[in-house]
Each structure stands twice: as C-alpha cells, then as structure tokens.
Design a protein that fits this description.
Length: about 425
C-alpha cells in the first residue's frame, strides 16, 4: 500500500542540513504534529494571489473586493471540508488555541464543562473560568464513553453544558470515539466541541457524521502555515456572546451616547468574533489546503499514512529498549503520531542525537499535555517550561518522551531512516 500514491509535494523536501559527523543530509521533517510543512500547492496558490492582496471588508478598490471575495469563499470551502450544517458559522481565528479560547469566552452563564485530563493544554485550560469537571484518563475508548456518561448523569440536566473532546491525541496519535462521546453528551443535553488539531490533517472530519456542535483546528498543522485557524459550528452561542475581541469589523453600528459613553451594535455573523483586519492569506491558505487534501482523496492519504504507521510500529517493536506510549493499547488505531521512550536514554538527548547524527527532526518533551504524559509515564514530569523537557541526568529514567509524527508529505525514506536510526 505504500504505492497507493506518492507523498504530496511540500516545501522543504529538498532542504539539506549539516550533520555532526560532517557532510549534509536531506532534512527528514518528522514533527508534523507540531507544524506540518506547507503543501507546495498552498504555497503556489498564495504566491499567485499575493500581487492581488488587499484589505478585506475595508476598501472599495478592485483588489479589496477580490480579497473580500476570497476570504468569504474560504469560509465556504472550510464549511464544505468539514461537512458543516447549513446554519453553522465558520469563524477564522489564529489557531486551535485561539478557537477554543473564543468558545470558552462565548459559553452561556453557568455552563458546565467536561473535559478529559488527557487533553492538550489548549483544550484543557481555556475553561477554567467555567464550572469544569476534569475526567480521569480512560484506558479504553469504551471507558471514555462510560466515564463521560457517569459524569453527565450527575449534572443538572436543565443548565447548559459543553464536552470538549479530542479527535486524535497529539501524544499517542490514538483516535478517540468522537461519535460515541457526542451521542452520550447529547443524550444528556450537553454540547460538544471537537479539538481536531491532530485529526483534520489525517482524517476526513464530518461535523454531521460525528454529530459534534463545533470543530476547532489549526492551519499550520493542515499544511497551511500562515497563522490561521478555524472554529466552525453552531451559531447560537456565538451570536449571543460578547465579541471575543472588540473593534472594527465586529461592529455594525457605533454611536456616541449623550452621557459621553459609546453604544455598539455587533454583527451576528462570524465577523462578530473577527474584529480587526482579517488574515486573508491565512484563510486563503487554509482553503487551498482543504481543497488539496480533498482532491488528493482522504482514502488514499489515510491508506498511505497507515502504511507508514505500520512501518514505524514494526520497526520500533523490534527494539527492546523502546516503549511506545498508548492509553488504549498498542494496537489501537492512530494517526501518524507516536510517542515513545528509550530505556537508558534521556529523551531530549535522544531527540538531539536524531537531529545531529541523522538529520531527523522529531519533538521531545511533554507536548503541552502534562497530565497525559504523567499518566503514560507513571511519574511527575516536572514543571520546567510549558511545553518543554525537564532535565534528567544521562541514564536516568525519562520523564519526558520523544514524538515522531508524519503525514501527507512524508516520503517512505524519512520513516525508514528514522527506524534505522532508533535501532
Ligand atoms: N490541540 C491539539 C490536540 C494539538 O496537538 C495542538 C497543537 N499541538 C493544539 C490543540 C493547539 O494548536 P495551536 O498551537 O495551533 O493553537
């Protein structure tokens, strides 16, 4: 199945990096989960548009009109990519973190929030001003559903509630039972937001099929690295909320009161939460990435990526010192994201050696998911650096891990080099 298709062309595929041993090697970018390289097609689309760049919703000139059209059409492309409902809104944000903070700021009064401790900090932390229930890490997908059902059964069924779930873990790559969690939430009158930061680049996401109320993802993980993200979903809570940012673009009419204050009538469309000049390149590049992935076909992309996942798993399984981290078991379905520790090695030193000796770029550390990494490694990973790696002496047990991640642009050779290097 490796021959299902060639990798999609991405930027940086010919970049040479120096090795500590002398000489150079083609860089093997195996850190897609942090930021994926831009698709060549996204880059070409942006370059073709760049001369026509103009302000969005803020000019009468031809190029402003063109940019406004591209920006508004990008919403439609994203809505189609996510298979949104007719009435859903697509809000352009800076990132997944921004999207989830936006939703957190738009929660109705007294909203209860339910979230697993295994979430990325972007999904775990924005709700801290609400009534949050943090759920224990499940060890099977079924247990996740059971844990959520029990927590929801105890809540006041009349008040608003939100469940925040991840589609694919940024640490283990494991897929979460999103549809089942959404059904459980809805059965108890709660709504669901899906953190699709690690799911959308690897898997088709259908808001309708999954039955989620909102989806958040980041452009830079979806091969469109221009500082943009998306929050898509139900309009009612977003419309009822104060704008996330106050400013031009969000306001429909602003008037001076006789007492000297200012009155404002906010837009009800997505623009309500997009104050300030929009990032049209960011939105356009996300739309271009959505189209490219759709045209390449997720069936083909998933088949190819799963071949690479198998290669990494088989390769690592043959190395006794390596322990792959998983919540749901070694055979659980996952996207192209795997974390592991190597006995006798400090993970940071190991990752540094992969870079210096083999030109392989992976990630080491705690992956902005401290409670999850703590559960997986069975220890306190310490507190140094928000997403960074606590120091351990050489030979000490690792309290951080190494993550390898890949996707649509990864050639087989990168994965083969990685497996050889670890071995
Ligand atoms: N959620 C998950 C699952 C992630 O992996 C990440 C990024 N590592 C985020 C949220 C946050 O994304 P961003 O940094 O683009 O806001």
């Amino acid at each position: 199945d490796q021959s299902v298709c060639a990798p999609l062309p991405v930027l940086g595929r010919d970049v040479s990096v120096p090795l500590v041993t002398g000489g150079t090697v083609t860089y093997a970018a195996l850190d897609y989960a942090a930021s994926a390289p831009a698709l060549q097609r996204v880059w070409d689309d942006v370059a073709a548009y760049a001369p026509y760049y103009g302000s969005v919703h803020r000019g009468a000139g031809y190029l402003s009109q063109l940019s406004t059209d591209l920006f508004e059409n990008a919403r439609k492309t994203v809505a189609a990519f996510l298979d949104c409902r007719e009435e859903d809104q697509v809000v352009f944000t800076r990132s997944t973190t921004d999207s989830l903070n936006l939703l957190a700021a738009a929660l109705p009064a007294d909203c209860q929030v339910f979230v697993f401790e295994t979430e990325h900090h972007a999904s775990l932390l924005p709700w801290r001003d609400a009534r949050v229930t943090v759920l224990d890490a499940p060890r099977t997908p079924q247990q996740a559903v059971g844990t959520l059902e029990r927590a929801l059964a105890d809540r006041d069924p009349h008040g608003p509630a939100l469940v925040c779930v991840t589609g694919a873990s940024n640490v283990t790559g494991e897929l979460w039972p999103v549809r089942e969690l959404a059904e459980a939430a809805h059965a108890h009158g709660a709504r669901v937001v899906l953190d699709a930061a690690q799911l959308a680049p690897h898997h088709p996401v259908s808001v309708r099929d999954l039955g989620v109320d909102w989806v958040a993802f980041s452009g830079h993980k979806l091969y469109a690295p221009f500082g943009s993200g998306v929050l898509a979903g139900r309009a009612d809570w977003l419309r009822a909320a104060e704008p996330y940012l106050a400013g031009g673009g969000a306001s429909r009419r602003v008037t001076r009161r006789t007492d000297g204050g200012v009155d404002v009538d906010w837009h009800e469309s997505a623009a309500r939460h997009e104050a300030g000049s929009p990032n049209v390149i960011g939105a356009y590049s996300i739309a271009s990435a959505c189209k490219s992935l759709t045209e390449a076909g997720f069936d083909t992309l998933v088949a190819r990526e799963q071949y690479l996942v198998r290669r990494v798993r088989e390769g690592l399984a043959g190395i006794p010192e390596v322990k792959v981290l998983s919540l749901f078991g070694d055979d659980a379905p996952r996207v192209g994201v795997l974390s592991f520790v190597v006995e006798g090695w400090n993970s940071s030193h190991f990752a540094a050696a992969l870079s210096a000796e083999y030109g392989i770029g992976v990630r080491d550390g705690l992956f902005c998911a401290h409670p999850l990494v703590r559960t997986l490694l069975g220890g306190d990973p310490g507190t140094q650096g928000e997403c960074g790696a606590p120091e351990a002496a050489p030979g000490e047990r690792s309290l951080n891990a190494i993550r390898v991640s890949f996707g649509a642009g990864t050639p087989d050779e990168h994965v083969e080099r990685f497996v050889r290097a670890v071995g």
